[in-house]
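Question (not urgent): is this output format expected?
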Amino acid sequence: MINYIHMEAFYNSDILRMYKEVVDCERKYKKNEKTGKWEFRFDIGTDPLTGKRKQVFRRGFSSRREAAEEMTKLQAEVLANEFLDLSQMIYAKYMEEWFEERRNHLQKETFNANFIFYQNAIKPKLGHLKLQQIAPIHIQKFINDLVNEGNYSEATVHLIYQIVSVSLKKAKILKIIKDNPANGITLPKRRRKEMNIWSLEQVNFFLSETKKLKKLTRCYIGFLIAIFTGMRQGEAMALRWKDINFESQTIYIRQTLTQNTEIKTGAKNNSSIRSIHIPDKLIIELKAHRVRILEEKLQAGADYHDNDLVLCTRDGKPIIPRNFRKEFYRLTDKIGLPRIRFHDLRHTHATILIQQNVNVKLISERLGHSSIKMTLDRYSHVLPNMQKTVSDELDKIIQM
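Got this back:
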């Protein structure tokens, strides 16, 4: 007599379920009549984003056994939650993960700027492409379209390209793609913007005329710091008293102030974290300014926000960068000098040093450039005059 209870237990057992899965797998193998190759297909669940069924499809196997081995391997990866169908991944999906990684490595302002370029320029034209199918021709057409549309400058096109190139370079490192399709792309030639700087005579005029004014802006010390050190605006506005060694006459760049008035530890890049030796004239001005800050600190008492900043409001808070620049333009107009950007004081500082034949390596280190080449490329406009000086000196010292 058959034991139906045991039979029911058998049919409900794991053994029966495994048997059914084997039968199902048998049905999913198929030999392509046209190519004579074997292929397979199986489900891996539902896509949580679309709600659609997700399947894995592979073809081109020379035998049924080869197809079975590959299918078993992929199913094992699915069970271990390790499978990712890279062949179907679109560039936009990949960029979501890539930007999450970049968020931890870039300064907030840089990250936001890059993400805006991605959203506005990159994603609309490349985001829909499958990552593994992006070819150099796609990237070249993308760059050509950006140039022809004329919505971005040459420098910005270079920046947008850099975002794409770096992202695809990472995809290659992750072995999602074999080669970086952004390599070898032709980019528009960048036109160098003409620098508006002050001459040495104009700098001296600025220093002498401002001293005649009865009331100077509290931002004045920041203008002097830029003239005498070539520091970036964010570096000067985040400078603390403890970053100044009055005995050795040295300033240490250790933090920056963003355009949103946030103090950030570190500098623009590794080479920007540096020390700068400063002249006696700036030391005297800094000491006088410190007396003013200490007096304001005593008057404010408990209401003072002690950030130890050299450039700050009366209650110790960081000065808004936009207001700082306005004070510079207002003072420049008042004494009748041609208006230049505040950042051009940095260029003015570098140009004066080059004209005085200061070693370019020392200038590069002072400015926090990553290489001497960057310094020479940026201030190449000064070099023709220096070449004339060299030839004049040769005429003096070589006898014929």
